[in-house]
Structures are given as C-alpha cells and as structure tokens.
C-alpha cells in the first residue's frame, strides 16, 4: 500500500461532501498522518498495521501537488458546505458508527490504530480533541485548514499553492462558509475551529470577516471558551513558560478576536460583543489579574485582548468604574475614546450632537437626576429650547453641575435655529437629511461660530454619555442609521 493509493481512495470517497463513504475513524487516521510542518507536530496515531511505515504525508508538499490538492479541496468543502443542524446530527450518527467495507485491505488498515498517549498535544487538559467522534474529525480538519492557510500566506510562490482560489476551500459563498464555521463551533466549541476561523479571516479578509461579525453564535462561543480557559487555570497557578500550557486557550481566543477585528476601527467588533459584554469584561478582569501576578509579561496577544475590552468599553460608553473594571481595560478604553472621536471633524461632531439631542426620547437632562431621567411632565429650558428637566431643582443643578448646561445653552439654540434641526424628532417628523457640507455652510453663513467655538461646544457636550454613545459611531452610512442608533442605544441611558 502507498500513500498515493490512500490519498486517491480518500479523495474519491469525499466526492459527495454530504455522503462520505467512510466513517470518522478512517478519515481521522488518514488526516492525522499529515505532517503540518509545525515544529511541535507529532503523529498522534499509534499502530502496528502494515500501512504504518508507508503512510508519510507532508502538508508542505501536498499544497503544491495536484492530486493532494484535490483531497484538500474535498476535505475543506466537507466542512464548509451548507448543512442544517439536523443534517449535522444525522452525519454524526452515521459516521460515528462504522459501516465501512473492511474486506478492502486499505480500508481495514485505516481502522487498526489507537491514540498515542505520549504524542504531543497542543491543547491542554480539558481542551483536547482526540476522540473518534465527528467532533474529533472536525477538529483535525480545522487544524489542517489553519496550517494550510498559514502556509498560503507565508509561501514564496503562494499563487500556485493550495488553495489556488477561495472557492477551493470556501465553496461558492464566503457567507455560507462563515456560517458553517460558526455552526460547527456552536456544535463543538473547541479551539481548532477558533484557529481555523482566525486563519481564514487573515487569508480571505473582508469577504469572510463580515459574515463572521454578523454571526449570532461566534461572539457567544468566543466569550464562553475564554471563560472556560480562565476557569481551567488552577487557583495556585504561578506561571509557566510552556507556550501550550494552561494559558494557551486564552491566547488562542485573543488571537482569533484580533484576526476578525481587522476590518475597521472597532465599531463592528464592539457591537459584535454587545450582548455578551458583561461576561466578556468580567472574564477580562480575571485575566488581567492573572497577568499581574505572572513573573513575566505575556506577549502582545494578551494586549490585543485587553485592547478589545477597551474598544468594547469605549464604544458602549460604559462607566469608568475602577471597582468594576481592571485598569488595563480602562486605560485602553481612554485611548480608544480619543481615537474614535478624532476621526470626526468639528462640524461632523457638532451635527451629530444636534441630531442626537433631537432623537433622544424626552428625559431630564440632569445627568444626576434622582429620578433617573424622570417620567414627565417636563419643563423646557427657556434658553436653548432643546432640553427638558423634570423639576426646577434638576434644572438648577444642571446649570452649574458636573456637565454645566450654561456652557452649551446658547450654542445649542443658535445651531438648531441655523440648521433647521427640529427640537424633537418623532416617527412622523424625521430630522432633515442634512449632509456635513450643508451643515457647515449653514453654520458659517448664519451663526458666525468659528471652528474653535464648535470644538469647545463638542468638548462640553461629549462628556455626556447619552450623547457620546450615539456620536461614537463614526462610520454610520446614513442619517437614518444615526436615528436608529439613538433610539436603540440610548435607552436605558445608564448602563
């Protein structure tokens, strides 16, 4: 028996990705013999079968050989082709129960093996994937794809290497492939799939990152696996130099988070984690505490994780509560808040502030209102004719308060009157679709306010988290989106 004969047989058996010929045990044995070129790689299979001395496969060679490329095509499409949850359950039931034709000597030899307990495993206890289930097979395929994608990115003659095109491994649709990566991860929340997600994001960029960021399953599982990684660390842990020790799951999750965030300034990824931000930031607090007591500093990958926490904290405008958030998160949040607002011009910021004031549901504008915004009836400020208060006491406190209304009152009135932005928008009265250039023209011609005056106005308005939470989103494609953000993100007003 030769490796070529086995590759041919396996390739033919996967011609129909929905109906593979053999069981999990067969494919696990074959794919486990592929040396990925990793310096830590070690064949996890122990066998005395006749094929053992002949089956030597190298991924470095396979990505350049047409016959081997065909096998990689089919293995990849097996994982990325569209399957429903019911399809996945049926596939597991079928492939985990061997009905292979063992009269074929090639097929029979691929079943005569056991796991080698002494072989190196990059995944620590609690995260190992060495089983003969469909989950074990998916783990091996995901690790193989990760290694192949990394080879593709680093290869000198990468145009000829597998995958020669994205359809070789993603099929006809990036979106469908991304959905399947996330669906497999939801079924089997394991590190190899996370690594494949990150590697595919690095190789195929925006086409597959956008569907990842739209996934309902990916953020949930990233945060859940991160928490599992922290939970698995012994309470008396004092540090180790083992790159694949108990800290590896944390590093692996942070790496994936970094890889899928390379698309914009953090807007998408911040809202990507919004539903899970409490657990995410709580887990980051624990990781930062672990990092503080390690005898050495973890590499930049952990900084990527803390930075992501800072982006989430900044974009969602969470409070700077040092009793709730670790200083590493708050430091990155401060940096990200400055970066987020720096990309908007003074006129753009002022326009968005005025639109936000128009869109905010009626509420007491005293940031420290004892009624948490009040329920009405409200009294309107006679100066700006734009903001309201639930009582004279709240109005007096806000006039000279922490965010003194007196510093912006006249300018709010002047800007509103000059640009035609209504006092309050309603479902029947939407704000004008005023572009930045038109806003700037009206301000310049009708108010006499200088750019410096606008900058001071913005600086006085933006400390109000209710305004900042909307204005933060610097990449809104239209004013209708600004309206939607205001109505959804500013209720409730305090997080």
TrEMBL record:
<dbReference type="GO" id="GO:0008270">
    <property type="term" value="F:zinc ion binding"/>
</dbReference>
<dbReference type="Pfam" id="PF01753">
    <property type="entry name" value="zf-MYND"/>
</dbReference>
<keyword id="KW-0479">Metal-binding</keyword>
<protein>
    <recommendedName>
        <fullName>MYND-type domain-containing protein</fullName>
    </recommendedName>
</protein>
<keyword id="KW-0862">Zinc</keyword>
<feature type="domain" description="MYND-type">
    <location>
        <begin position="366"/>
        <end position="409"/>
    </location>
</feature>
<keyword id="KW-0863">Zinc-finger</keyword>
<dbReference type="InterPro" id="IPR002893">
    <property type="entry name" value="Znf_MYND"/>
</dbReference>
């Amino acid at each position: 028996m030769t490796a070529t004969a086995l590759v041919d047989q396996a390739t033919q058996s996967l011609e129909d990705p929905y109906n593979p010929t053999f069981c999990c045990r067969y494919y696990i044995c074959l794919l486990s013999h592929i040396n990925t070129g990793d310096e830590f790689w070690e064949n996890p299979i122990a066998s005395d079968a006749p094929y053992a001395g002949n089956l030597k496969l190298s991924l470095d060679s396979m990505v350049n050989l047409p016959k081997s490329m065909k096998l990689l095509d089919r293995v990849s499409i097996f994982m990325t082709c569209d399957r429903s949850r019911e399809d996945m359950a049926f596939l597991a039931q079928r492939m985990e129960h061997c009905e292979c034709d063992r009269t074929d000597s090639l097929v029979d030899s691929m079943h005569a093996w056991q796991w080698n307990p002494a072989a190196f495993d990059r995944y620590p206890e609690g995260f190992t994937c060495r089983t003969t289930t469909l989950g074990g097979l998916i783990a091996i395929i995901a690790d193989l794809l990760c290694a192949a994608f990394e080879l593709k990115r680093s290869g000198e003659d990468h145009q000829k290497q597998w995958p020669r095109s994205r359809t070789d491994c993603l099929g006809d649709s990036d979106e469908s492939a991304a959905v399947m990566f996330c669906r497999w991860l939801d079924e089997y929340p394991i590190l190899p799939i996370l690594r494949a997600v990150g590697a595919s994001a690095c190789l195929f960029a925006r086409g597959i990152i956008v569907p990842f960021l739209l996934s309902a399953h990916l953020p949930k599982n990233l945060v859940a696996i991160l928490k599992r990684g922290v939970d698995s660390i012994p309470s008396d842990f004092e540090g180790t130099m083992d790159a694949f020790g108990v800290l590896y799951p944390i590093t692996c999750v942070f790496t994936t988070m970094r890889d899928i965030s390379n698309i914009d300034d953090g807007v998408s990824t911040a809202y990507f984690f919004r539903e899970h931000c409490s657990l995410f930031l709580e887990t980051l607090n624990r990781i930062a505490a672990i990092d503080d007591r390690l005898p050495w500093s973890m590499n930049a990958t952990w900084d990527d994780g803390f930075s992501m926490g800072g982006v989430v904290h900044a974009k969602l405008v969470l409070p700077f509560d040092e009793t709730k958030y670790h200083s590493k998160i708050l430091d990155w949040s401060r940096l990200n808040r400055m970066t987020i607002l720096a990309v908007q011009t003074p006129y753009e910021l002022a326009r968005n502030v005025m639109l936000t004031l128009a869109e905010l549901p009626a509420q007491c504008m005293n940031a420290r209102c004892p009624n948490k915004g009040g329920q009405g009836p409200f009294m309107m400020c006679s100066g700006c004719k734009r903001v309201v208060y639930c009582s004279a006491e709240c109005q007096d406190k806000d006039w000279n308060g922490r965010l003194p209304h007196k510093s912006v009152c006249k300018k709010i009135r002047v800007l509103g009157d000059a640009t035609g932005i209504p006092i309050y928008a309603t479902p029947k009265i939407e704000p004008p679709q005023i572009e930045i250039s038109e806003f700037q023209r009206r301000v310049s011609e009708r108010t006499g306010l200088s750019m410096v005056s606008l900058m001071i106005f913005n600086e006085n308005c933006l400390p109000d988290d209710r305004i900042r939470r909307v204005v933060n989103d610097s990449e809104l494609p239209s004013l209708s989106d600004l309206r939607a953000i205001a109505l959804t993100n500013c209720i409730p007003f305090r997080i």
